[in-house]
Write a structure and sequence with these properties.
The chain is an alpha/beta fold. The protein has two domains: about 230 residues, ATPase, nucleotide binding domain (Nucleotidyltransferase, domain 5, 2-Layer Sandwich); about 210 residues, ATPase, nucleotide binding domain (Nucleotidyltransferase, domain 5, 2-Layer Sandwich), CATH 3.30.420.40. The strands form seven sheets. Strands 1, 2, 3, 5, 13, 14 and 15 form a seven-stranded mixed β-sheet that branches. A seven-stranded mixed β-sheet has the order 18-19-17-16-22-23-24. β2 and β3 form a beta hairpin. α2 crosses α4, α10 crosses α15 and α13 packs across α14. The protein is globular, with a radius of gyration of 22 Å. The protein starts with a strand and ends with a helix. The mean pLDDT is about 95.
């Protein structure tokens, strides 16, 4: 037997083939573009995702284990709105998670009675429900044609199965789901101008959503009947890939956006904190996470304006952690979610002098990102989520300086998985496996072997505590100016 995990990212798709025990066998990637038709807009054509998937599959078919494919799981970037008409045709490009055009609609919906209580979350501009309210106002002809709304991962699941199905973890980011009850809420749907008939059928991410279409099975060269799992939002899938299922477990992801996620055994929403409280991809579990919108994007910005690669910037700092510098970077290049829920705030860099060097700028950017993640850690601690350590994943985890800095700012050990697969694509493959075999998620979704532990630099913890204490007032000061 073999299993396929599909990770539909914002900039590209990764497909991972695993064996019956979950060991990676082969992987393929395809990339696509994001369109920005207007300031603050971010869109993609779902046809590009299908083309990327087919290209990746064509490459993986060369592996001898491919014909034994028995299960498939799809993970994807959350909150996007794929709009289908009665014939199942895509009406317009998908409005993505980082699109901010519906800020006004989000604010109105967030102020509507029972919305926060039922959804468990603030209604952020990136969520799905305000996108449809924006569409109703600005593109009424398109809105009138909407027969189904699918999230990006659910759209690929629809392509694979022909069914309209969505999982709980992804659906919790729409503002239409009663997150505690794990069911569509008629109250929330009415508030968002939608109907239950426009929603896909809900399943748990580890359960079977359908089977691979017979025509695709023939085209792909696999036997019919491969199970397709409910799937997951990208961060829930990453939690499955890293074995973060239970209370006391968590990870920090240094990717385009920064995520600090803690698994929860129960449902404990805290929308006032700007934490996301979502269903996990496995039954009876939830997770909470803080999100900062510009994590490695902040370092990429500095690399771009200095004409340097990000890896060169961090390598120049060496491995030995320095004390906090006088420069202060507020990492709000695209606004911020946790804890500020502020789509309008923009970044600031202060304390620059004639003596400032490129290395000083790099340290300031890394410090600002770490302080932003500390905001999320404080919000999680306030609701009782206190992991003893965090798994560190994402592109930024390749910098030992950054990891030592983050461990010191959080005052928590960071565990680095050994080289290999452990992210969303593996999590999706594991979901495909549970859907096909009926195995218990806990036996399949185990933590990876740890290759290294990054401890806080104890001598510098007080200095970074003091620097973090100045970070919050700096946000308030720059917000008042902007």
């Amino acid at each position: 037997m073999s299993f396929l995990g599909i990770d539909l990212g914002t900039s590209g798709l990764r497909a991972l083939l695993t064996d019956a025990r979950g060991a990676p066998l082969a992987a393929a990637e395809r990339h696509y573009e994001v369109s920005h038709p207007a300031p603050g807009w971010s869109e993609q054509d779902p046809a590009d995702w299908v083309a990327a998937l087919e290209g990746a599959v064509a490459e993986l078919r060369r592996h001898p284990a491919w014909p034994e494919l028995r299960g498939i799981g799809v993970a994807g970037h959350m909150h996007g709105a794929v709009l289908l008409d009665r014939m199942g045709a895509v009406i317009r490009p998908c409005i993505l998670w980082n699109d901010t055009r519906s800020a006004a609609e989000a604010a109105r919906l967030d102020a509507t009675p029972q919305v926060r209580e039922l959804s468990g979350n603030i209604v952020f501009p990136g969520f799905t429900a305000p996108k449809l309210l924006w569409l109703r106002r600005h593109e009424p002809d398109a809105f009138a044609r909407v027969a189904k709304v699918l999230l990006p991962a659910a759209y690929l699941t629809h392509y694979l199965t022909g069914a309209y199905v969505a999982d709980m973890s992804d659906s919790a980011g729409t503002s239409w789901l009663d997150t505690g009850a794990r069911a569509w809420s008629d109250t929330l749907l009415r508030a968002g101008g939608m109907t239950r008939g426009q929603m896909p059928r809900l399943v748990e991410g580890s359960d079977k959503a359908g089977e691979l279409r017979e025509d695709l099975a023939r085209l792909w060269g696999v036997r019919p009947g491969a199970a397709v799992a409910g799937g997951a939002g990208d961060n829930a899938a990453a939690a499955c890939g890293t074995g973060v299922l239970s209370e006391g477990q968590g990870f920090v992801s240094l990717g385009t956006s920064g995520v600090l996620l803690a698994a929860r055994d129960g449902y404990r929403p805290a929308p006032e904190s700007a934490l996301h409280s979502f269903c996990h991809a496995v039954p009876g579990r939830w997770y909470q996470m803080g999100v900062m919108l510009s994590c490695t994007d902040s370092l990429n910005w500095l690399a771009r304006i200095t004409g340097t690669r990000p890896a060169e910037l961090t390598a120049a700092l060496g491995d030995r952690l320095s004390a906090p510098g006088r420069l202060r970077f507020l990492p709000y290049l695209s606004g911020e979610r946790t804890p500020h829920n502020d789509s309008d705030i923009r970044a600031a860099l202060t304390g620059i002098g004639a003596e400032t060097t490129r290395d000083d700028l790099t340290r300031a950017v890394l410090e600002g990102v770490c302080f932003g993640l500390r905001d999320s850690a404080e919000a999680l601690r306030a609701v009782g989520a206190r992991p003893a350590h965090l798994l560190a994943i994402g592109g930024g985890s390749g910098s030992r300086y950054w990891l030592r800095l983050l461990a010191t700012v959080l005052n928590l050990p960071l565990h680095l998985p050994k080289a290999g697969e452990f992210g969303a694509a593996l999590g999706a493959a594991r979901l495909g496996r549970t859907a096909a075999t009926g195995e218990a998620p806990e036996t399949v979704m185990t933590p990876p072997p740890i290759g290294e532990v990054i401890e806080p630099v104890t001598a510098l913890v007080p200095a970074y505590e003091a620097a973090y204490a100045r970070f919050g007032p700096a946000y308030r000061g720059i917000r008042a100016v902007q």
